[in-house]
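Phenazine biosynthesis protein PhzF family
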Amino acid sequence: MQIKVYTLNAFAKTDNGGNPAGVVLNADSLSVNDMQKVAGKVGFSETAFIKKSNKADFKINFFTPNKEVDLCGHATIGTFYLLASKGIIKSGQYTQETKAGILKVECRNNNMIYMNQMKPKFYEVPNKADIADSLNIDEEEIMSDIPIQIVSTGLKDILIPIKSLKSLYKMKPDFQKIAHISKKQNVVGYHVFTLETEHGSTAHCRNFAPLYDIYEEAATGTSNGALSCYLYKYGLVSQESIGNLSFEQGYSMKKPSEILASLIVDNEEINEVKVGGIALNIKEKNIEL
């Protein structure tokens, strides 16, 4: 049996930027085992499978090459950008049924896709010495006025504030140690960031998820949604700017990416988290099952 997979680069800033994702339309006939096999053969960090839903406009399953995950930001952007580019959806609001819940997705003009994430949950503060050791950096390179913290807007990540872009670029992570800490803390991985940026963005980021066989990811929607909430909580973004945040990622991989985010806040409480972007380089391939 041949399965048609669309491939594209979500959150791309340039043609060679962004985070590649696979998308399978009309996946209702595929079993969990089939979907896992397809994702393994595609080999991208995530492949999305679109099915019919009786609870939302679409049901979407997300698979890494070795396991299913509840939600994937960049694959959601890629999926809905593909649906828009094929004329299956128009500008407007849609819902997707995922294992992280039923989430809203907005298609704006120029096929700019924004996805709603869950309201943020803030968890424990991991040990700074262990984190620094796993990144092969000095503790002094980590910001001291804000914490390393586990935050989730659908998926749990350890957010790690670094003082400079130079430190962020030169770090050589120990992926075995990161995988061990990620498993122990029950998180997907590390989202390491600095407020120093290349293009006047909100923050510049690197993302490591070796526990899921993703050593570094060029663009991570869920992590930047969580980071937006963290930056608001600790007073690092102003009330005026929270509707228009932007994050640089993938530069150290030569895959420049731009992830947009927007928060809606009422009485200092975050009520809505959206992450947005576009996709480039839509291609097709057939996978033999």
